[in-house]
Write the structure tokens for this entry.
Amino acid sequence: MRDVTRVAFLGGIYSNYLALEAAIREAKKRGVDQIWALGDFGAFGPHPNRSVEILREHDIPAIQGNYEESLSTNAEDCHCGYTDPRDNHYAQISYDYTFENTASAYKAWMGTLPKHARLELDGQRLLLCHGSPRTINEFLWRSNTPTPFIERMLVEHDTDLVVCTHTGIHWERRDDRGRGVVNVGALGRPANDGRTNVWFAILTGQGGRVDVEFVPVAYDHHRLAREMSDEGLPDEFVETIETGWWTTCLEILPAKERAQGRY
Amino acid sequence: MSQLVQIRPLMPAEGTFPTVPMNALDTLWFQVAGTICNLECTHCFISCSPQNHAHEMMTLEQVLTYLDEAKQLGVREYYFTGGEPLMNKSIYEMFEASLAQGPTSFLTNGVLIKDKVAERLKALSDASDYSFDVRISIDGYSAADNDPIRGAGTYDRILAGIEALANVGLNPVITVTEVCGDAATRAGRTRFLDFLKKIGLSQPRLKILPLLRMGAEEHRERGYHRWESLAGAHLSKDELSALQCSSCRIACASGVYVCPILIDAPGARMGDTLASTLRSFPLEYQACFTCHAEGLSCAT
């Protein structure tokens, strides 16, 4: 277990290498001791190798998401965990493109990454995972992750704080002692709020508890949108980058999160 | 209908069966209206009707007791079903208690959702930090499709219920069974989503359910064929974990059963408390075949 005091956590990157570069710059500017990536480096966006190269160039420690698990095992789909046919249709387009355009050596590297990691932040024990501690593709949304369930999860996995991503929307739910869940959001696409920026999180250990800051990241989203179009990725994906509203993979959203979006 | 359908206990099929483990109690159902319903749908797998008292309504005290135990066990989500949950006189207190500790859904035929009811449901939703889902069943694109299944005049009343919810800003999940001809196909699904947009749901949410060949459905179209069972089957760990019974239980007035589908099976009653039911269960009922073969989950 490593002992650090200020750590940036990057959620799903989804091949948004422009946002990844911007986030790393921002995290370094804010003086973090370490940057972690929580999986799903590819998907959705263009040129999946670029995000991997940036992560490796900056020596960023990382855990696997469902994409890394699928890509490194030559799986036929992303195992995103969607249940709706339309969601799965777009997920498959995204996965097929990413699979085809990810270098074999990078796929092999993804297979060497762990599925979990543990850190200690000023005495608080952190468990890093992609979806949830028990399942790589479990969706932990704010409105369907209640306190009693979180308490069970912390006991079962012997930790104080679960740090995860996978849903694409950042949130936290913690008790008076700061124990709970922090979903760091995603760099890959906006948070379905009509804004084009994306998000990551900085956790700071302070006086025995952890402070959480969600950091908005502006980047050249017009450029990303252009590159996605040039690569033949669906117009629906491009629209999300341009508008900040999700157009696909919507059926998995619980009622409250769905009501906050346009579609 | 009620004269024709004989309510009888559901019995296991013959053979040797795989056993599903209880991985984690994530989902707790409440058979809150028992088998008592204001409608008598001809495909109802537990033959609910105004006269069917095989399972009685749950009391508020019963629900609160199970909610309390569920909190200790770290349950993730709650579902209320029946029968028609809105016929339970304590239903709003039950929703309020449930929404205080987790995301909550209820399954309704929608015909009792008038403006006042919709407003009350919206207020409950707004007051909770967790998602509150109303799930309404309909069986077709028109009264001609729906009413032979759900009862004369129900189509218009269901649409009125959906409209009342949409008017207050609640977006129900619409459930359709495969009785509705093409609903399970890709084209049918698109057609249904368009239909839902047309009737006022700007973000249509749709769940298609396979038919369970038991209860009233046995008399409508057919019962299970003999070969439709998991006798002799070997299911992998992943296949077993995909079954809802590996992570759910249902509380009824008469005790806790393995899942919402098997409440008419005396052998599916697993205990009086939730904790006493956290053990494996043999997949010896023909409905278990549907869950496995069709990937059926009663949850949304």
Q: What stands out?
A: Chain A has a mean pLDDT of 96.
